[in-house]
Amino acid sequence: MKAIFLAFFWILGASLQAQEVERITLAKDATDEAILHVYKPAGKDGQTPAVLICPGGGYRRLALDREGHDMAKWYVSNGILAAVLEYRMPQGRNEVPLNDAEKAIALMRANGKRWKIDTGKVGVVGSSAGGHLAASLSTLVADEHRPNFAILYYPVISLEDDLAHQGSKHNLLGEKAEDIEIVRHYSLQYQVDDKTPRTLLLLSDDDKVVPPLNSIRYYSALKEHHIPASLYLFPQGGHGWGIKYDFSYYQEVKDLILKWLTQAEVLTR
Predict the structure, then answer these.
(1) Residues 6 or more apart from 65 whose CB is under 8 A from it?
(2) What are the C-alpha distances in Å from 180 to residues 159, 176, 187, 226?
(3) Distance CA 153, CA 186 (A)
(4) Domain-embedded: residue 243
(5) Per-residue pLDDT tens for 166-186?
(6) What CATH number has the domain bearing residue 154?
């Protein structure tokens, strides 16, 4: 029994040593603050790829564990620096989350040497409303702040009424939710251009929260602009699975991501 406990604590200690975490405040306002949690793989020689992780939560709260910190630990375990963005809630201030995401990716590239990041391999990962933020970073910002690749889990893409997750729409836009031009601006299938990064989309056919057509229309827009893209639509799983052991395709998702990153020459295997 003593040997089992010693082995457990040795494994736990090794895991903690392998994942050094730095906490950085990006922005503050009267009610909220944006924080970047940077997980660094230990023992890496040379430069490593990196991902900025944007958890979901309908632009009202953040699913920081299964779509944030738990994901970061998995990406780090595969030799990728992972930074979890605890972005500010918009409360109708539509520019706030994207401002936080821009600051985060700029900071990551600015710290490329210190964090041993390959600044040409900085991607974004987003889930649900965090997928909308990740796709916004891929389409709406200046070229220097765009990621080099994107991985989107069951993302909110459109804010038009036929496809929108209404909570995300109204939390992001507030009183501007009835403004047709603003709604179209944040319906990201219309914002894809030739500078949008290669993208991997992962979702479930039975998602009742964010209709799968969100991802399908974004994928179609990417292909119209000749952007390398892949879409995997699992037959079941619903919404919000993130990194969950009870998701039926848990292992398949991990394998697909690693294979996609390898084929995109982000990872070397």
Answers:
(1) none
(2) 10, 9, 10, 28
(3) 18
(4) yes
(5) 999 999 999 999 999 999 999
(6) 3.40.50.1820
The total domain count for the chain is 1
At which residue do the structure tokens 């989350």 appear?
A: 97
Q: Do 235 and 267 contact (CB within 8 A), yes or no?
A: no
Q: Which has the closest alpha carbon to 116: 80, 74, 75, 68?
A: 80
Kindly state whether residue 11 falls inside one of the protein's structural domains. Answer: no
Tokens representing residue 74 in the block: 């998995």
Q: Which domain holds residue 245?
A: 20-263
In a domain, 7, yes or no: no
3 assigned to some structural domain: no
pTM above 0.70, yes or no: yes
The β-bridge relationship of strands 33-41 and 81-86 is antiparallel
How far is residue 162's CA from residue 159's CA, in Å, rounded to a whole number?
8
Q: What is the pLDDT of residue 19?
A: 59
Q: What percent of the chain has pLDDT over 90?
A: 86
222: closest CA among 238, 201, 245?
Answer: 201
User: What is the DSSP code string of 87-142?
Assistant: PPP-TT-TTHHHHHHHHHHHHHHHTHHHHTEEEEEEEEEEETHHHHHHHHHHHSS-
CA distances (Å), 256 to each of 137, 158, 171, 251, 261, in order?
23, 25, 32, 9, 8
- The average pLDDT across 86-97 equals 95
